[in-house]
Amino acid sequence: MDKSKRNHITGHVNRNYKDRLFRCIFKEKQDLLDLYNAINGTEYDNPNELEITTLEDVVYLGMKNDLSFIIDDIMNLYEHQSSFNPNMALRGLVYFAELYRKYILINDINIYGSTKIKLPVPQYIVFYNGSEEEPDRKEIRLTELFYPQEKVAQPAVECIAVMLNINYGHNLELMEKCRKLKEYAYFIRIIREYLNKGDKIETAVNCAIEICIQKEILKDILQKNRSEVLNVILTEFDENLYSKSLREEGREEGIIEGKKEGMKAFIELCQEIKISKDETRNKLIEKFKLQKEEAEEYLIKYWK
């Protein structure tokens, strides 16, 4: 990928913005409690029973964790992802380690004593609304990242991220139980519809905001915080574009390296079976679609 293009993309990203939209929508305790009830089939009605534990000052891989809280001795970690990340379980392990460290300090728990301590049970939910097709529910396990190991019967640690697809049309039962989640999914769907028609991201977001306000979807948030919502969406869009560009660049570099290795192996094979240097050059030009000068460079480099 062209470096100027990469710099152009990164130049649009404001990494100091306050919150992601998903977090903005569920930052009120009542809305977060509604989401928890919808996921777990519970009926808690007192938002004060919910203790927010989000790590405001902890940054891992450049991103704060979205939401964490404790209710009924369950430590919940909620993350929103607009692209599939197979390493979320590892992120969860790091977050939970810090959450438990903080929990132990706040509650003055002695982990070195002879008395068995009690800890809240961890629950890790990843809300996915990327453009790639994913199932309604998917488990991502930390142990899937470990090197194959026959000498160890059971790994010492495990962390399971439960990924829920919250694209509009997925997890219908969950959406019906949590209005804010359904409205968020609809808002993102409208933005994508405009993008698919060829509109610019700014136009798509503004049109989606107008439509949703008219339909009283996320109306309170969109009316009061329109500029902030626009800024957040544009930032998230730029970050996703940047990440995608890096992946594409990595694939391009991988293809180039693979082609080099293929030519090296081909030249070595020609030498082994006694094909002349001139004939090998001609075969390189034909097989790898090279110019004569390029083929000569590889011959100089790999011909022994």
What is the secondary structure topology, with strand pairs?
Blueprint: H1 3-10, H2 21-25, H3 29-40, E1 51-52, E2 59-60, E3 63-64, E4 67-71, E5 74-81, H4 88-106, E6 121-128, E7 137-141, E8 160-165, H5 172-177, H6 179-196, H7 201-214, H8 219-224, H9 226-272, H10 277-288, H11 292-302
Short description:
It contains eleven helices and eight strands. With 304 residues, the chain is α/β, with parallel strands linked by helices.
Question: What keywords describe this structure?
Answer:
304 residues, alpha/beta, 6-stranded mixed sheet, two-stranded antiparallel sheet, 11 helices, 12% strand, flat
How far is the N terminus from the C terminus? 33 Å
Structural class: alpha/beta
Given the C-alpha coordinates, what overall shape results? Answer: flat
Q: What's the total number of strands?
A: 8
Strand content: 5-15%
Give average pLDDT, whole number.
Answer: 83
| Radius of gyration from CA coordinates | 26 Å
- Report the major sheet: 6 strands, mixed
Oligomer: single chain
Estimate the helix proportion, in percent: 40-55%
Q: What's the arrangement of strands in the largest beta sheet?
A: 1-4-5-6-8-7
Provide a count of the helices: 11
Low-pLDDT regions:
1-19, 58-63
Overall number of domains? 3
